[in-house]
TrEMBL record:
<keyword id="KW-0479">Metal-binding</keyword>
<feature type="domain" description="A to I editase">
    <location>
        <begin position="31"/>
        <end position="518"/>
    </location>
</feature>
<keyword id="KW-0819">tRNA processing</keyword>
<keyword id="KW-0378">Hydrolase</keyword>
<dbReference type="GO" id="GO:0046872">
    <property type="term" value="F:metal ion binding"/>
</dbReference>
<dbReference type="InterPro" id="IPR002466">
    <property type="entry name" value="A_deamin"/>
</dbReference>
<protein>
    <recommendedName>
        <fullName>tRNA-specific adenosine deaminase 1</fullName>
        <ecNumber>3.5.4.34</ecNumber>
    </recommendedName>
</protein>
<dbReference type="Pfam" id="PF02137">
    <property type="entry name" value="A_deamin"/>
</dbReference>
<dbReference type="GO" id="GO:0043829">
    <property type="term" value="F:tRNA-specific adenosine-37 deaminase activity"/>
</dbReference>
<dbReference type="GO" id="GO:0003723">
    <property type="term" value="F:RNA binding"/>
</dbReference>
<keyword id="KW-0862">Zinc</keyword>
<comment type="similarity">
    <text>Belongs to the ADAT1 family.</text>
</comment>
<comment type="function">
    <text>Specifically deaminates adenosine-37 to inosine in tRNA-Ala.</text>
</comment>
<dbReference type="GO" id="GO:0008033">
    <property type="term" value="P:tRNA processing"/>
</dbReference>
Length: 519
């Protein structure tokens, strides 16, 4: 036999083994975002073409939805490489057993998860430090281009412009292909975010191994360690409507932190504070010194600068997703079960295990009578000592060490959104619209971001149109589904679970329905 032929066969077999055969513990980023801003109610659009909440956690989750839509399209067309199974007899898809989701954030979510005692006594840290608040304006990073980023000038503003972005990302890990791991390693080297940023980065990951493996695999990954600079949170206007229940009040967690006293000095310790404000119709913060400044376990709103928002804090939203799932109402039409996280992983930052567990899970204990397949998800919550090198603290330390005077570290207005999809993977948004769009085109379709409600609804309709009506899930076999609102409300099990959640969290702000009547 020819020696070259034998070598070719051997090489082919080895290549197939290393590149094609399924492998365990394969990681893949599926979505990522940065951002710290929210728009006020006066700037909201009834056409669904503006992103209301541009905090990193929220944008990452919306980018994740783009990924899920593409994966569902693949599953319903018979593509075996999808993370979902083919539709069952009820026309519903399920997540494959080998796939799990993990969420990484380099800082605790704004709101209740960020309220906990400081380690220094009140004699040292008693006054409020705005730069340490998780949702306080005036904190962030002054963004400047450096030598390593000059190749990306087209996506940046001029050098010296200020940026403050929260970063969030979603990651995929499965045992289906080594390409997943390769894609992830590529992200480690590829500076797809063309600016130096102070960011918060939640990342949802699909993983088939445990949390420790995830930390080990991604612990040194710059693309995944985006530390959040502060964002602002303020109260909403009294005109905002809210979900209430006359017979039930939200009393799901103790309202005050236990008194924190330093045993050596006797001083009462201060707490880390959030800029997020309590709901106007619910209990309010005491605003006293030390541990009595905040009440804990309460719903809170993010702010707009002088224009109240209708955006709940990231702690509140993540708690809700632990009940109704991360897939949202529209995608729940096509799924047999809601999609939940296996873990929430936090980078190096001020952190308190009790606080984040209280915010994301502890407050949910009174939620009951959920519909079939819905349950209170309890993800593993793990902190790491991985610090993003361009975080606010790291940049300030670097400036101090180098005696560099870059001025005040401030939040940036831009957000970066990335999804692991075939088209339109990366975009930058400002004030809920795509960056770079002229005022002449601001109301046209090209000004929309891919993760705004209107574009998500287009993805939903594309998914429906990809199959005959006989292939529709039961909840979509109706003739009265015309608007975004109609289709969301038709997701009966999801809406039932959401209603049970609102029985407990009865001051949750509900956006007026006319903001969802677009088609």
């Amino acid at each position: 036999m020819d020696q070259n032929f034998a070598k070719e066969v051997a090489t082919l077999c080895v290549r197939h083994y290393t590149e094609v055969l399924p492998k365990k513990d394969d990681l893949k980023v599926v979505a990522m975002a940065t951002g710290t801003k929210c728009i006020g109610r006066s700037k909201m659009s009834k056409e669904g073409d503006i992103i209301n909440d541009s905090h990193a956690e929220v944008l990452a989750r919306r980018a994740f939805l783009r990924y899920l839509y593409e994966q569902l399209q693949a599953a319903r067309s018979g593509n075996q490489e999808s993370i979902f199974t083919s539709p069952d007899q009820d026309r519903l898809c399920s997540l494959k057993n080998s796939i799990k989701f993990h969420f990484f954030t380099s800082q605790t979510p704004c709101g209740d998860a960020s309220i906990f005692p400081k380690e220094s006594p009140a004699g040292v840290e008693l006054s409020k430090d705005p730069s340490s608040d998780d949702c306080e304006a005036g904190a962030g990073v002054k963004m400047v281009q450096d030598e390593s980023l000059r190749g990306h000038r087209g996506a940046c503003k001029r050098a010296g412009d200020s940026f403050d972005v929260d970063a969030s990302s979603l990651q995929l890990s499965s045992d289906s292909s080594s390409e997943c791991l390769h894609s992830n390693k590529k992200l480690k080297c590829d500076k797809s975010v063309p600016i130096q940023v102070s960011v918060t980065e939640p990342c949802v990951q699909q993983l088939c191994n445990d949390t420790d493996s995830l930390v080990s695999e991604h612990g040194d990954n710059p693309s995944l360690l985006l530390d959040r600079s502060s964002s602002r949170c303020c109260s909403t206007s009294p005109a905002c409507t809210s979900v209430r229940d006359d017979e039930t009040d939200c009393k799901t967690a103790p309202n005050q932190l236990p008194e924190q006293t330093d045993s050596s000095s006797g001083y009462c310790r201060d707490i880390h504070r959030t800029g997020a404000k309590c709901m106007p119709e619910g209990p309010q913060d005491l605003l006293l010194s030390g541990a009595d400044y905040h009440r804990v376990g309460l719903l809170r709103l993010k702010p707009g600068r002088g224009d109240p928002t209708l955006s709940m804090s990231c702690s509140d939203k993540m708690a809700k997703w632990n009940v109704v799932g991360w897939q949202g109402a529209l995608l729940s039409h096509f799924l047999a079960r809601p999609l939940h996280l296996t873990s929430v992983i936090v980078g190096k930052c001020p952190y308190n295990q009790e606080a984040i567990q209280r915010a994301l899970m502890g407050r949910l204990q009174q939620v009951s009578n959920l519909p079939e397949h819905y349950t209170i998800n309890v993800p593993h919550i793990v902190s790491t000592q991985v610090l993003f090198p361009d975080s606010k603290g790291a940049v300030q330390s670097s400036n101090a060490a180098g005696h560099s005077n870059q001025g005040k570290v401030v939040p940036a207005g831009a957000a970066i959104i990335w999804a692991n999809v075939k088209q339109g993977t990366l975009e930058v948004s400002v004030n809920g619209k795509r960056q770079g769009v002229t005022s002449k085109n601001i109301h046209k379709k090209e000004a929309r971001c891919s993760v705004c409600k209107a574009e998500m609804f287009e993805s939903f309709k594309d998914l429906m149109q990809s199959c005959p009506e006989s292939g529709y899930p039961q909840t979509l076999r109706r003739n009265d589904l015309h608007t975004y609102y109609d289709c969301k409300m038709a997701a009966t099990p999801y809406q039932q679970a959401l209603a049970r959640f609102h029985v407990v969290f009865n001051t949750w702000v509900k956006k007026p329905s006319d903001y969802s009547l677009f088609s």
